[in-house]
Design a protein that fits this description.
The complex is a heterodimer of chains A (402) and B (373). By secondary structure, chain A is an alpha+beta fold. Chain A is 46% helix and 13% strand. Chain B folds into three domains: 108 residues, Butyryl-Coa Dehydrogenase, subunit A, domain 1, CATH 1.10.540; 100 residues, Beta Barrel (Butyryl-CoA Dehydrogenase, subunit A, domain 2); 151 residues, Butyryl-CoA Dehydrogenase, subunit A, domain 3. Helices cover 53% and strands 14% of the residues of chain B. Classes of the chains: A alpha+beta (402), B alpha+beta (373). Chains A and B meet through helix 7, helix 9, helix 10 and helix 12 of A and helix 7, strand 11, helix 8, helix 9 and helix 11 of B.
């Protein structure tokens, strides 16, 4: 056990930091903001392409796919540097982190270059078609049908909660290709161009009131070329769980950084000493809650580092559900604490538009009340907190399935 | 950062666990609880294995292992609800002496500790339950070549049994530490929740010791604070181990206990409690190990880390005691079942050296100060 990274890892950090100094877009160039999670402004497309071309987009990948074969610890300091500077890796996070990653892991060489590379270079954007009206926590119960008809599939059904679909060029959709076998064994993964006839996207707003990001996506006899099948036919559940587990050693960093940003903002507001913040900073009840959130932040980082160390030694990592549960609920607890501590000022937009980092999405400009709503995206999406408690009890603690 | 035990540390953990499984089974804690044993043999066994020497510096006759290794031992002691003077002697008396005493005094006092020949403890708190050195009112005055003490100390661990007590007192306007033989003070122990961890109230009025028992030079406030960071982390590590044992008992029991024809662990209401216990334990675990690591490397975060470890284990014990006893049902409520041995150890750990809430507020103040700087 030790507290510091090796000098080799620190040298890697310095190299990336220098690259960012030289390559981050001019702040003035960043005025145009994304309107959804699949809308990348031109300046951000240019930056993401440069990250890819110079091997800094996904450092763990080989140079061919935007990386430099970096070790886990080097990947960790890469994320630390992005977080410290509040720079978002991609404004199409699911496109890069899940869709292109799934194609890199499960796709053919041809698919990697035809689909994944353009998504990574931000030439195209992608969305993820998983949930359906009748398939949320029971994702494997999805019913969107794809029937093989010669050299193409014909797709019928509906997806929902499809973030950014209205701005995405392609979907990675999970569809039922065999209804006569156990539900996990009849699913396949298809890449579907969103301009295919019969595909209709209908954006809808969320509780925070920001511009719509979610979509309903309807499929009415949508033809999809057979070559767009990712992985084997009826082996889509493996792609699905593989995509959610992608970079499994690293996902905690996003929870950790999200929590740290909220904490930074809270400490700053309490230290400002003006208005309600002044009273809150001296309130033992507020201090009690704040201390707990600071501990959540440290615990998340340390548990994540433990996972890295174990993974580096080739040990099985089993704490993804723990980290997701801890991270999402810690954010919710902190937002609620701030909301209840500050009084009515928490209802106002606390961070002026444009005052935060120009290189990240606009979410931190929301009021504490809005940030509280937004934390439910964390405790509901990607497996609800209840599902993750079941997973911990059954897969980590060995309790019988109920 | 490499946040996992080394192979050597994992080997130590296995060896310590094996030894305690054999030498400190639940029967030992139970015998102490029933008033049938003082566990003196167990302390001699530990001394024979040089455990007291482990974390002490080589200059004081110790083996010079680090604080991470000490945390491994402490966690296992908690996991076994092991009785005896190890915690007070090695994690309270020894660090305070090491921080405050002159080098000559330190080697003289710590060599017998390292050899397992002397037991010790500290007397700092005077009733607030926070162990904050600013609250010390007990005083010493010079009388010829002697010091004469006055005041009362509370919650002194092993206060009625320890051979040497390092006492925080005011002298000439400074906070100082003086060692007092246990035999020289009047110690009154209460009826303990955990008979394996007894504290006592100590009356110092009129106690006279040679002035040579005054440790070091100058005001000892900072040194006391540093030593307390070790004591706090140690109680946290013991509490962590007790929580882990509670969890192990319950996680096994819910797989075996059949009701409505199925194991009760198949019910979601039970699963969710177990998942939350596991989450709180793992959260506390990394905070304890981090605190141990900052002590091992004397890192500036050690103050923050010690409080986080103490609060983290305090939260974990709250959940594990509450839900552990609840999930065990009627059988856990009996004296015959071993569960209560570990519930006691966990609950006592919350109340010694500052509660979870006290340390959470301290964490918040430290963060606000750092932000203001």
């Amino acid at each position: 056990m030790r507290l510091t990274y090796t000098s080799e890892v620190e040298a890697f950090r310095a190299e990336f930091s220098a690259w960012l100094d030289a390559n981050l877009p001019d702040e003035a160039a960043t005025a145009i903001r994304p309107r959804s999670s699949a809308d990348i402004p031109a300046w951000a497309r240019d930056f993401q392409r440069r990250m890819f071309d110079d091997g800094w987009l996904v450092p763990g990948y080989p140079p061919e796919f935007g990386g430099r074969n970096a070790s886990l610890y080097k990947q960790a300091v890469f994320w630390e540097e992005l977080g410290r500077r509040r720079v978002t890796q991609s404004f199409n996070p699911q496109g890069l982190g899940i869709v292109s990653a799934s194609i890199i892991t499960f796709g053919t060489e041809e698919q990697k270059h035809r689909w994944a590379v353009p998504i990574m270079r931000a030439e195209r954007t992608a969305a993820l078609g998983m949930s359906e009206p009748g398939a949320g926590s029971d994702l494997a119960g999805l019913t969107t049908r794809a029937v093989l008809d010669g050299d193409r599939f014909i797709v019928n059904g509906q997806k929902v909660w499809t973030s950014g679909a209205h701005d995405a060029d392609v979907l990675l959709a999970f569809v039922r290709t065999d209804p006569d076998v156990p539900k996990h064994k009849g699913i396949s993964a298809l890449i579907i161009e969103t301009d295919t006839p019969g595909l209709v996207r209908r954006p809808f707003g969320d509780i925070t009131g920001r511009p719509p990001d979610f979509n309903e996506v309807f499929f009415d006899d949508v033809p999809v070329p057979r070559e767009n099948l990712v992985g084997e036919l009826n082996d889509g559940w493996r792609v699905c769980t593989g995509s959610l587990a992608h970079e499994r050693e690293m996902l905690w960093i996003l929870w950790s950084q999200g929590l740290d940003r909220m904490l930074d903002d809270m400490l700053e507001q309490l230290n400002e000493g003006a208005g309600a913040g002044a009273g809150a900073a001296g309130d033992p009840v507020v201090l009690d809650g704040l201390g707990g959130s600071i501990m959540d932040s440290w615990a998340l980082r340390l548990l994540g580092q433990r996972q890295l160390a174990r993974s580096q030694r080739g040990l099985r990592v089993a704490d993804q559900s723990l980290l997701k549960l801890l991270g999402s609920e810690a954010q919710q607890k902190l937002a609620l604490l701030m909301l209840e501590s500050l009084g009515p000022v928490a209802l106002d937009r606390t961070v002026p538009e444009g005052a935060q980092s120009p290189y990240e999405s606009d979410r931190s400009a929301l009021s504490w009340a809005d940030r509280y709503w937004f934390t439910f995206a964390g405790t509901i999406s990607g497996g609800t907190s209840e599902i993750h408690r079941n997973i911990i009890a059954e897969r980590v603690l060995g309790q019988p399935r109920g | 950062m490499e946040f996992e035990f080394t192979e050597d540390q994992l080997e130590l953990q296995r060896a310590v666990r094996d030894m305690l499984d054999a030498e400190a089974p639940p029967e030992l804690a139970r015998a102490v609880a029933d008033g049938e044993s003082d566990a003196a043999d167990f302390w001699q066994t530990m001394a024979g294995l040089e455990w007291p020497a482990m974390a002490l510096p080589e200059s004081a006759g110790g083996l010079g292992y680090g604080w991470v290794e000490l945390a491994i031992v402490l966690e296992e002691l908690g996991r076994h609800a092991a009785p005896g003077p190890f915690v007070a002697t090695v994690t309270q008396f020894a660090p305070l002496v090491a921080e405050v005493a002159s080098p000559d005094q330190a080697s003289e006092l710590l060599a017998p500790v390292a050899a397992g020949r002397t037991t010790g403890t500290i007397a700092v708190d005077e009733g607030s339950g926070t162990w904050h050195p600013d609250g010390v009112q007990a005083a010493a005055r010079r009388d010829g070549d002697d010091l004469v003490l006055e005041g009362t100390k509370h919650y002194v661990l092993d206060g009625a049994a320890a051979e040497e007590i390092a006492v925080a007192v005011r002298l000439d306007g400074e906070l100082r530490v003086v060692t007092v033989p246990g035999s020289a003070v009047q110690a009154v122990g209460g009826i303990p929740v955990d008979p394996g961890v007894r504290h006592a109230t100590i009356a110092l009025d009129g106690v006279r010791v040679p002035a040579g028992r005054l440790l070091g030079d100058g005001d000892a406030s900072d040194a006391i604070r540093r030593a307390l960071e070790e004591s706090v982390t140690a109680v946290a590590a013991v509490t962590l181990g007790a929580c882990q044992r509670i969890f192990d008992i319950i996680n096994a029991y819910t797989k075996e206990r059949i009701q409505f024809s199925v194991p009760i662990g198949s019910f979601q209401a039970v699963k969710h409690k177990l998942a939350d216990m596991y989450r709180d334990i793992e959260r506390a675990r990394v905070l304890v190990y981090y605190a141990a690591l900052t002590l091992a490397e004397d890192h500036p975060d050690r103050t923050l880390a010690a409080s986080m470890a103490k609060a983290g284990t305090g939260e974990a014990q709250r959940r594990c005691v509450q839900d552990g006893l609840q999930l065990a049902g009627g059988i856990g409520y009996t004296w015959e079942h071993d569960l209560h041995l570990f519930l006691r150890r966990a609950k006592v750990g919350e109340l010694h050296f500052g509660s979870a809430s006290h340390h959470r507020r301290k964490v918040a103040r430290l963060a606000l100060q750092a932000g203001a700087a």
